[in-house]
Amino acid sequence: MNQALTSVPAVPLHIGGKHHASTSTEWRDVVNPATQEIVARVPFSTTAEVELAIATAKEAFKTWRNTPLAARMRIMLKYQHLIRENIGALAELITREHGKTLPDAEGEVMRGLEVVEHACSIATLQLGEIAENAANGVDVYNIYQPLGVGAGITAFNFPVMLPCFMFPIAIACGNTFVLKPSEQDPSSTMYLVELMYQAGLPAGVLNVVHGGADVVNLLCDHADIKAVSFIGSTAVGTHVYRRASESGKRAQSMMGAKNHCVVLADANKEQAINNLIGAAFGAAGQRCMANSVVVLVGEARSWLPDIVARSKALKVGPGSDREADLGPMVSKNAMQRAEKLIQAGVDEGVQLLLDGRGHQVAGFEGGNFMGPTIFSKVNATNSVYTQEIFGPAMCVVETDTLDEAIAFINANPNGNGTSIFTSSGWAGRKFQNEIDVGQVGINVAIPVPVAYFSFTGSRASKLGDLGPNGKQALYFWTQTKTVTARWFAPDDGGSGVNTTISMK
Asked: Pick the catalytic residue: 173, 261, 288, 395?
């Protein structure tokens, strides 16, 4: 992994348990965002290649679905061990193609590993339920059976964690899988898949294709795909959910956000400021759970100069620099989009307290670097508030009361994540009760649930009633089959014809 690249490698497909060289005529460069070095080339899969991946997964399902629970569990146990042994290698790949700092990349791998560890409990998770003697001699029971071939479509910002939100549980449940990772940083995802096969996964159970809209549409439309999981932008997620649903598939879409961090004056000041800054600017703000809006309530408004000063002191640098607080943005296009939105805020008269545009890092002058950026006096109509900037930009809103803060957040169309910093149990409970947001943090800035709880975004941030991870993931990737059974004694002549709906 550390060897200097002598040539630009072509990222393969993964079909039938082995690398598959694409014959596509359409390729995209994978660029190191800190240096602009082309580190790989990724194909946009042909229709025939996608069809082959799906057909391979369908064939593998015939045997994988009947693989004993214990055998599936042991593969997952081996898999979690291999991931743990290769945290460093995976993190290096993430940093090279995404740009996030190595400590942050290592943290991402660990959060993905949590899901795999959860999948190791599949023998318990997939237990059914039974009611004996629901009627005379009648037993009713549930069994959770795999659906068939599942598909996953993931975003660039967590190239290891997001695939782990999908295929480990799906496969552990007895499904086979076709994954389409982000074309911007696919190498860490591919390494994750290779480790899955090193763990003993049978050929064809997990397959990988690459591409853009055409590939996504093929996965949504194909009759042999039974369920589609998506994590990414609102525009694409809405399209995927509608198209997959209209094709008769089960679908879930985790989408855009505008997350708010409420700060009350009774909070631990040092803890609150450190946490909200980390949540806003970590990974250069490229997290769907980033708290990009800070709501200062009452006397907490006086903390703004401290927030600005501490943000200004953050170190921006290449992700390979372990002392850096935030690395580059993933691409020139992403940085230019963020800069355009920041300028729109300035043009609208929003107060720009800290401007991170045009940030230069010595030795990495070509990198996609943006420093922490802070707007104050933001209102609900400003474009920096209505749009998800997805960069290191914080919007500061001020309210007089907690009730006003809650009303402000609930008026936003998104409901991905939110948090409150307070020392008041009453305020924390009021907030969690009245806020209309899926993930709530109390003195926790980025409340991404641990893997054995489900990801529960709401409103415009989520489509589909079942989310990734936890119990909901099991229900999403299985068909609940309810069996009603009665067994008659050989000499039981019965009591005649029953023309009613009652069980007799």
From this structure: 288
In DSSP terms, 15 is beta-bridged to 18
288 is catalytic: yes
Residues 345 and 416 grouped into a single domain:
yes
Q: Which residue has the tokens 């400590």?
A: 103
Kind and range of the H or E run holding 42: strand 38-43
C-beta separation of 180 from 153 below 8 A: yes
Q: Give 47's Cβ-side CA count (13 Å radius).
A: 5
Our CA angle for 243, 249, 250, nearest 5°, is: 110
Q: Is residue 411 part of a domain?
A: yes
What would the pLDDT profile of 137-163 be if each residue is shown by its tens digit? 999 999 999 999 999 999 999 999 999
Return the residue matching tokens 């589909």.
464
- Residue 47: enclosing H or E segment and its boundaries? helix 47-64
Q: Tell me which residue range forms the domain holding 353.
A: 260-442
Total domain count, the chain: 2
Report the alpha-carbon angle 450-188-393, nearest 5: 65
The pLDDT of residue 496 is: 86
- Report the distance separating Cα 145 and Cα 466, nearest Å: 17
- Backbone φ/ψ region at 87: left (φ over 0), alpha (ψ -120 to 50), beta: alpha
Radius of gyration of the chain (CA): 25
* 175 in Cβ contact with 477 (< 8 Å): yes
- CA-to-CA distance for 35 and 40, rounded, in angstroms? 14
Read off the pTM. 0.95
Domain match, 180 and 326 both: no
